[in-house]
Amino acid sequence: MNCEIISVGTELLLGDIVNTNAQYLSKRLSDLGIDVYNQTVVGDNLNRLVESLSIASNRADIIITTGGLGPTDDDLTKLGIAKALGVEMILDESSLKKIKGYFNKLNKTMPIINERQAYIPLGSQAVENNNGTAPGIIGEYGKNIYIALPGPPKEMKLMFEESIVPYLRQKSKSNIKSRTIKVIGIGESMIQEKLGDMMINQKNPTVALYAKEGEVHIRITAKEEDIEKADYKIKEVENVILGMFSEDIYGFDGDTLESVVNGLLQKKNKTIAFAESCTGGMISSRYTDIPNASISFLNGVVCYSNEAKINILGVNRETIEKHGAVSMETAEEMAVGIKRISKSDIGISITGIAGPSGGTESKPVGLCYIGLAMDNEVKVYSYIFNGNRAKIRWLASTKALDILRRAILALKE
């Protein structure tokens, strides 16, 4: 079975709100073994809504709408469905009673305008809204299933999980399972080249690449009636990919680079401290987003100015005067300094030119030095990142975390 999602609301077209409903529904429908081939956004216009519904009915088995179920004149979704199907709107007495009950609980009289929410297309059934006034609908018409959900995400999600998921489980004969493998340090094109025939001849499971900032995700997806068979097929492909990329794979599914690093540090019983210049605390911020990060993370210092590097970390003034704040030598002393003042097992430093100005021919925008002080040894890595200021800072913080990850993996038990 395949589905089309139609999101209704002029505010979506204007960019006033982000369409998180479609993202949520696509993910959950995939979990249920239902393919989503198309998503449509249409404004609060009855004729265009009817047109979109008619187009969807010819290419999808299931049409799910979100939004447009309120009581005002621009809430046209159910009427649009009725017109697209050529059926009349009828009053659902049970829905009207529940809407009135909602207002009674608030010690308010239901406005007359809310009565229109109780009307549904003939042949459909109302779906109770346990988090608002607007009921949804489910209707089976010929080869098509129409489902109308409210627009507010809290209402939509609750209705979908409580009422629509059980209904769709009965309709779907397939299970779609996915596994995401997260790779860092190798570009998308190189990964695709290594995967070769696996990408070209794929059928079931499929393998897809998703380029992210500083990393690439490989998603393996299998579709089977038997969920254990889907898991088996995914595992076969996963094992092949693991053999190809080894330590360039940092995690799976919901893992983040920082959460993996935290787990490795705790497993090795090691502590970390960061000294940041051009990233301005971004590494520390990412790291402290992790629950229980305090077990491994001792300290983070933003040493943006030369004086801060000298006075807080103990970088020699002569080092900065001779080599500059953005230099291998300064990064080395920053890493040693943060390790010393924090009494941590590992010190990471980063200094660079995030731009857009400040670059020179010998030290261009994007140049970053990352220092690693560990076990009485200091290593400094040099990189030139491309992009705007925000991207350079993100890529630098990602690279620093990956350097740390690989260093921990290399530690002897």
Automatic annotation (TrEMBL):
SUPFAM superfamilies: CinA-like, Molybdenum cofactor biosynthesis proteins. Pfam families: CinA, CinA_KH, MoCF_biosynth. It comes from the Bacteria. InterPro entries: CinA, CinA-like_C, CinA_C, CinA_KH, Competence-induced_CinA, MoaB/Mog-like_dom_sf, MoaB/Mog_dom. SMART domains: MoCF_biosynth. Residues 4-171 form the MoaB/Mog domain. Belongs to the CinA family. PANTHER family: NICOTINAMIDE-NUCLEOTIDE AMIDOHYDROLASE PNCC, NMN AMIDOHYDROLASE-LIKE PROTEIN YFAY. This is Putative competence-damage inducible protein.
